Amino acid sequence: MIEGFTALYIVMLAAFTGYEIIARVPVILHTPLMSGSNFVHGIVLVGAMVAMGHADTGLERTIGFFGVLLASMNAVGGYVATERMLEMFKSSKGSN
User: Fold this and answer.
1) Whole-model pTM over 0.70
2) Tens digits of residue pLDDT in 5-28
3) Which of 1, 49, 81, 82 is the most exposed place for a label (fewest CB within 10 A)?
């Protein structure tokens, strides 16, 4: 299990890396990048389910439930945003 300064170091490194990647992406690509990263964020859903599976107390199960709920909403939101974005790129031929 990751504890203490190692976890803090990983969070800081992830935040710095994410900031540097986003800062170098052209503005026109922010929406596709964000929708894709929201969907990839679904790995949080797996982590929340694993954490909930190891929960022993009622409080831990409740926190795990909200983790699963929020991660599910984020994954679905990423899918919906990607779907809307792809609809914008479809040609309008044949729709009239």
Assistant:
1) no
2) 888 898 899 889 888 887 888 877
3) 1
